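User: Before I run my own analysis I want an independent prediction to cross-check against. Here's the chain; please return only the structure tokens and, at the end, one sentence I can use as a sanity check.
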Amino acid sequence: MAIAGRAFGAAGDRINPVLVKEIRQALRGRYFKITFAFTLVAATLIGLFVILAQVAEGSSGSGRNFFLAIYACLAVAVLGFVPLSAFLSMGAEWEEGTYDLLVLSDLKPRRIVRGKYLAAAIQTLLHFSTFGPFLVFSFFLREIDLFAVGTILGGTLALSLTLSLFALGVSSLTRIRFLRAVLTILLAVSLVILAGLSIGMAANFTFRPYTLRSTDFPATAGVFLTILAGVAAFAHAVACARLAHPEENRSTGARALTATAVLLGLSWLTFFFVRTRGVNRLEGMTILLLFALVVPMLFFVTEPDELGRRVRPRVPRRGALALLAAPFLPGGARGLLLFLVLAAVVMGGAEAISASRSAMRSLPHGPILGALCYAFLYLSIPSLLGRRAAHTAKGRTIARLGVPVLVTVPILVPTLVGFFVGNRRWIEFEHIGFPIWTLERLDRGDEGPLVFLGSAALLLAALNLPRLVAGVREVLEASRDRRAGRARTAEAALPPAEETGAVAEP
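Assistant: Structure tokens:
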């Protein structure tokens, strides 16, 4: 008994304390009690209503309708309430002033994030276990496909876990109350939309289970899971970085994840092109991949340009390795350099994929170059204008908000101007500020917009060139300092010449 008690005590010491705290707060808090009771009561009443309606109509085999009714309640709970709870849990650390206590407890950022994430995962599993008997009962009502049920529930579980981690990452972005309120509204709206889309997809798979047995479904499911894994990994890296010390290396891990995601994207490009040999699909996915790079890159290009004091001693000693590692080290200018490197990898990979297989026509370069110019402009302008403000958390937040502003303002302002001056083309978004219209013109062979976009991108590249050079030079200087420090340390460790018997040369 004593051995067992010591074993349980040791296991209890290893349990994440944040997980214990979050579970206790969740189970005792009003939010979980109200949402859990609401979804359970709603599922019971809706299920009874579906069964009574089927009995009144005299029809049998109401399993699909019953399953969809219960699944709708489950989707609202695990895709809406649980991720929002994770968001509020992280926000409570800032608003209640308990984050300093977590830091003083010597918990590493990844343990804090992991504890909150596991708490959200346990809530999700609790909802699944509660709704399990309802879902099993739907099978006895017939007319339901078990493979479709398993696919729907498995995809919902993966999506719920990803959304919880995504909510933690979003909640860690800022401590400003106004911005947190805006993020709460945006997240709530996004969760409602995703829950509705999930219910619609579940209805499609429930009433058309043969779509899950098509030859394209495994590839589609693989892309879906790859995207979820990438979003979850990046959200975890962002949350850990936001909780880490400002002088720590909070960027390299997320940059490596972004590079890995690019390689996975190119792998899927190769897979789909080998199957279809469609240049149009290859072109579209390449453009989407370039625009998708803007999302993680907006965190990197708005960092302070200087290396942190805890980062410089960890720069590789060898100059060649330091040069290769430069794009992956923290710094706004080095973030722009990483974007250029990864964009070159995407474009080179797409070109290699197109050249490796015979196709009906060659890969068009105009739209891809246009997408590259748009993405570079969206990133380089906030990075250049916000390089001084990036030394403060508020300044970095404002600079990062500049990216969505640069995306939306060039689209909306010409449209509003066209409305007042009576320009029908601008009213219908036929202007260079709207990327879709521009890329369609480039695809038709009109190179006029590319000249304008290319000139603007080259101008911004010239303005940012001194920063890029200075960023690489700083890494090389840190590498030289490490080599010199190691040489001085080795020289100081040598015994005097008298002890070694060495004779000094005249």
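Sanity check: Residues 258-484 form one domain.
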